[in-house]
């Protein structure tokens, strides 16, 4: 591995935010999954969670422009499983929902360990997820369309988290576990 | 038209920002155009500009989830044409570019009349656009992938503009020209 590439990977590892994650519930368009994975990588998210409907095939993440190696896609077969996983990590669970009860996404503290749940392209977030979450959040809209594209909404929230975490000094300090760092350093040399 | 729908359209019109626009140079994936149009509507952008390559067919915006009626897509056959149009309106012209010369998108004043130019999915922004623009801007990334999805990058910048303009009191004050307002009020009653 060239010294430049080693330095690049080490800088990336210093910016990883293992206590920030995003979870996609029943997303069915591959380009939306791809776009979310690219954004996740760009803000330092290490794992993207996906809840798949049993009957639907899993969509692959081959098209996420080379991010597959750097962001792990972790599958769950139910919403409860995914939320339990986030609770085990001490994360607040935020669901995006186009509702009057939802809080403006900029009014949330994302420096806390956080899991962000995004809903299906057509039906939105499930009633189960709504019931399990700590908080509903929304990206305000002042036009006539009813919703944003799901990967767009995810990006707006993840970049707000990035902004807050940068101000709080969360970047440039390695918190990712050493085993995973070794894996990335090893795989990064053998792409 | 019901009183509720009339009120909704009037509120939308009060939030329109005719001096903020986005321009897509040679974008070829319809879902990216759709996503940008939805975001544009959501922040109050009235016109999305598209520069089409002569040989490529124009992509339609039928899939922008009902926003077609509320956001006009204006076509140009060359980058120079589009930039001239923005200059005539006194707009600063910003190009997104993954370069060391680009400024962090959060360091720009979007309360000024602004045109934001986004590049092609594969090749990015053209040399011509770079030469004509006032400023290159970038959304910072701390991972390993090289770029964001184009509709994601556009949304992050448009919502930063929305944030700044909201703070500056630009929303809730009608500035859209009366003829266009009448058109929307008329068409909104006859969808
Ligand atoms: C196309 S939307 C789903 C629309 C669905 N008809 C509904 O009512 O929820 C798909 C997902 O994108 C996200 N999303 C879209 N617009 C959003 C907004 N303004 N605020 C927060 N999340 C949004 C949510 O995760 C949503 O479940
Ligand atoms: C997939 S990118 C193009 C990548 C191309 N290889 C390049 O080097 O420009 C498509 C468009 O998305 C926008 N874009 C993607 N990532 C961006 C970022 N981090 N900052 C600003 N714009 C970005 C730009 O408009 C870019 O032209």
Provide an overview of this structure.
Chains A, B: Catalyzes the 2'-O methylation of guanosine at position 18 in tRNA. Two copies of one chain form a homodimer. With 191 residues, chain A is an alpha/beta fold. The first copy, chain A, is built from six helices and seven strands. In chain A, helix 2 (30-43) packs parallel to helix 5 (150-167). The mean pLDDT of chain A is 93. The A-B interface holds A 8-9, 11-12, 15, 29, 31, 34-35, 38-44, 64-67, 69-71, 106, 139, 141-149, 151-152, 155-156, 159, 162-163, 171 and B 8-9, 11-12, 15, 29, 31, 34-35, 38-44, 64-67, 69-71, 106, 139, 141-149, 151-152, 155-156, 159, 162-163, 171. One S-adenosylmethionine is lined by residues 96, 98, 118-119, 121, 123-125, 138-139, 141, 147-148, 150, 153 of chain B.
Mean pLDDT of chain A: 93
Rg of chain A computed from alpha carbons, rounded to a whole number of angstroms: 16 Å
Major sheet: arrangement of strands of chain A: 3-2-1-6-4-7-5
Largest sheet of chain A: 7 strands, parallel
Helix/strand-derived category of chain A reads alpha/beta
Principal-axes geometry of chain A comes out as: globular
Number of helices of chain A: 6
What ligands does this structure carry?
S-adenosylmethionine
Low-confidence stretches of chain A: none
First-last Cα distance of chain A: 10 Å
- The H-and-E topology of chain A, N to C, reads as HEHEEHEEEHEHH
* Biggest contact: A-B, 42 and 42 residues
Number of strands of chain A: 7
Domain tRNA/rRNA methyltransferase SpoU type (chains A, B): 20-159
Function (chains A, B): Catalyzes the 2'-O methylation of guanosine at position 18 in tRNA.
Organism (chains A, B): Ferrimonas gelatinilytica
Binding site for S-adenosyl-L-methionine (chains A, B): 96, 139, 148
